[in-house]
Structure formats: structure tokens, C-alpha cells
Write a structure and sequence with these properties.
It is built from seven helices and four strands; from the N terminus they run H-E-H-H-H-E-E-H-H-E-H. It has about 280 residues and is an alpha+beta fold. It has two domains: about 80 residues, no CATH class; about 160 residues.
Length: about 280
């Protein structure tokens, strides 16, 4: 005879069903845990592979890519007349010097001697003002360290020579204009004197144009004389640091490897996130 519980439900059948359900639950939980562990391990392997791959590619690129060497030099350009307002970087005098250094008048002869275009040469040359100073720093990048130093010296020679050659020509032009202004002033004064001698007493209307012409010529004379005086006091750039080869060589294998690893880390995080989201959706 079957034993029953107090509620009349057979005890043997209930125990068997409960045991089977418990067994299935334990087995299912263990299976899910093993599946989740395998998924996590696969994602970790994938992320590690991506990081190592990008770092290796970056290292190989840094080792195979041609090295670029940097040569530097420094110039001192004292500002005497036009004092800067704010940063020297914004001063017109300093900006003009930077334009001259990187301009065609200086670089064209160098590019022709090296068998290059001016644009190609300009890509490897950079002139900057050291902040809060009157120092111009020139940098030349080239695959050949020797040519980098030689090009730096050639740029300095061309720039300094351009300033020395331009100053006498400018002085000669200003002196010619000043002589013409002196002659015009003398003529205007002579006409005014002659008109004053022949004019009736109190007749100032006829003398007004002549007096205006004299004043105009006097102002022109003063301006030209001031430019000549300023030219004698004009600042001249001085070589402060001769060209030297800097330690900066690009690309650097270590920096490239670290950068590649960081890029791979970001890429791996994105891949893992997408993969985890797809697993959750399933």
C-alpha cells in the first residue's frame, strides 16, 4: 500500500520530481557558468590579439619608415623702435622676419642648388618665435642629418644676406626721394616768395595754394628724413646659436609601439563591447 502525506499527495512521486528538477537546475547553472567563462576568455584573447597586432604594426612601421632628423639654430632680433604690445609672437616686426626666413627670396636659391622645389623645401622648414623673447628658432627636418645642418646654415646665410643687401638699396632710394623733395620744397618756397613780393597788401587768398604746397613739401621732407634716420637704427638679426643636430629623430620605435598599443586597446574595447552586446541580445 502506497504511503501518502497528510494532504493525501504521494510522497515518493513528489520527491522524485523535485530531485530531477534540482538536478537539471544544477546542471544548467554549471553549463551556463562554463559557457560564460569560455566567452570571457575568447573576448580576452581577441582583445590581446588586437593590441599586440596594432603594436607590432606600429613598431614595424617605425623601423621601416625612413628616419627624419632635425637641425636647429637661433637668431636674436632686437626690437628697438616698435615695441611689442602683448606677446612678441603677434608683433609685426617679428612676423615679418618669419615670413622672410620661410619665403622664396631665401629658399629659392637653396632649392635650386639641391634640385628640389621651393614647396618641398618649405615643408621641412619652420621658423618660430620663442615665447616672451626676441629669439627666432629655425628648425630644418631632413632624412639626412648632414643635409639638415647644411640646409639650416644655407637658410641663415640667405636670410642674413638678404637683410644686408636690402638695407643699402633702401637707403639709396630714400636718399633719392629726399633730394627730390628738397628740390620741390625749394621751388615752392621760391614761388611763394615771388608771389608775396608782387601781391597787393592784404591779398592772402592768392597766397594760400602756394603756402599749402610749401607745407606739403616740408611734411614730405620730414617723413623721408625720419625714415633715413630710422634706417640707421634699424635692428639687425644676429646669429645666437649656430646650426646643430638635435636629438629629435622621428619616428621613434618606442613611441610608435606605445601609440599603436593604445590604439589597439581602444579598438579592442570597441570590439569587445560589440561582441558582448550581441551575446546579451542572444
Amino acid at each position: 500500500m502506497k504511503r501518502t502525506t497528510e494532504e493525501g499527495v504521494p510522497s515518493n512521486g513528489q520527491s522524485a520530481d523535485a530531485g530531477a528538477a534540482a538536478g537539471r537546475t544544477v546542471a544548467g547553472g554549471g553549463c551556463r557558468r562554463s559557457v560564460n567563462r569560455a566567452v570571457v576568455l575568447n573576448l580576452l584573447r581577441l582583445a590581446t590579439t588586437i593590441v599586440l597586432l596594432t603594436a607590432g604594426v606600429a613598431l614595424a612601421g617605425a623601423l621601416l619608415w625612413p628616419k627624419t632628423h632635425t637641425a636647429r639654430a637661433q637668431l636674436l632680433f632686437p626690437i628697438t623702435q616698435e615695441q611689442p604690445t602683448g606677446f612678441l609672437r603677434e608683433d609685426r616686426s617679428m612676423t615679418t622676419q618669419l615670413v622672410l626666413i620661410e619665403g622664396r627670396p631665401v629658399l629659392a636659391p637653396i632649392a635650386a642648388a639641391q634640385g628640389r622645389t621651393v614647396e618641398d623645401l618649405q615643408r621641412g622648414i619652420e621658423a618660430t618665435v620663442v615665447e616672451s623673447s626676441e629669439i627666432i628658432q629655425l628648425e630644418v627636418r631632413d632624412r639626412s642629418p648632414k643635409r639638415a645642418v647644411q640646409t639650416t646654415q644655407a637658410v641663415l646665410d640667405g636670410y642674413l644676406g638678404l637683410g644686408r643687401s636690402a638695407q643699402p638699396a633702401l637707403r639709396e632710394r630714400l636718399q633719392a626721394e629726399l633730394a627730390a623733395a628738397n628740390t620741390a620744397l625749394a621751388d615752392a618756397q621760391a614761388q611763394l616768395t615771388a608771389q608775396q613780393a608782387g601781391a597787393a597788401a592784404g591779398d592772402t587768398a592768392a597766397l594760400a595754394p602756394l603756402r599749402a604746397a610749401v607745407q606739403t613739401q616740408q611734411l614730405r621732407q620730414q617723413q623721408l628724413q625720419a625714415q633715413l634716420d630710422a634706417l640707421g637704427l634699424a635692428p639687425v638679426a644676429q646669429l645666437l646659436t649656430p646650426p646643430y643636430l638635435a636629438d629629435e629623430v622621428t619616428p621613434r620605435p618606442l613611441s610608435a609601439t606605445v601609440t599603436g598599443a593604445l590604439v589597439g586597446l581602444v579598438l579592442a574595447a570597441c570590439v569587445v563591447a560589440v561582441a558582448a552586446r550581441s551575446r546579451t541580445g542572444e
